[in-house]
Amino acid sequence: MNDLSLRDLTVSEDGEDVEALLARTEGVVAALQAQFASGMQDRMDRLAELYFRGWEMLATRDATAEAMRRILHDLKGEGGTFGYDLITEIADLFGSYLRDTSAPLQNKEVVTGYLEGLRLVWNERIEGNSNVTVRAMLDGLSRLAASA
């Protein structure tokens, strides 16, 4: 039987103990969260710009919807990683709507609703996926999108 102490088991080969490793890991996670927050704000600004400069004009809507879908794809993948499950869900629904609805049939109320939903969740930093207000809004948008 090996006579290793708990300390021996919790120290890496280079002498770093678990507490130091956890502190370093927390620093890395904090840096990634800050990077996500900065990127999220940039993406929100870019979605708004695309909406106002390209989506509202039918002639440029297809290309604009494609650019918006690329951003939404990234948000879908990253939101849940940092605890913003509603951002992931809204980005998924919004991206599907833009993909599955031809440009001339896309409804302005649906598009602005999804944009406002993303903005609400991000501005209020609503984490998780159980916010009742946002859930009601998503249900309403889903019904509106289905009926449009």
List the helices and strands and how they pair.
Blueprint lengths: L5 H4 L8 H38 L2 H22 L5 H16 L7 H16 L8 H16 L1
Q: What descriptive keywords fit this protein?
A:
mainly alpha; elongated
Give structural notes.
This protein is an all-alpha fold and 148 residues long. Helix content is 76%, strand content 0%. The chain contains six helices and no strands. α2 runs antiparallel to α5 and α3 runs antiparallel to α4 (85-100). The longest helix is centred in the first third of the chain and has 38 residues, at 18-55. The N and C termini lie far apart (71 Å). The mean pLDDT is 85.
Task: Summarize this structure briefly.
The chain is built from 6 helices and no strands.
Order of helices and strands: HHHHHH
Q: What Rg is obtained from the alpha carbons, in whole angstroms?
A: 21 Å
Counting H and I runs of at least 4 residues, what is the number of helices? 6
Tell me the strand percentage band: under 5%
> How far is the N terminus from the C terminus?
71 Å
Largest sheet: none
Helix- and strand-based class?
Answer: mainly alpha
Q: Kindly report the average pLDDT value.
A: 85
How much helix, percentage-wise, in residues?
over 70%
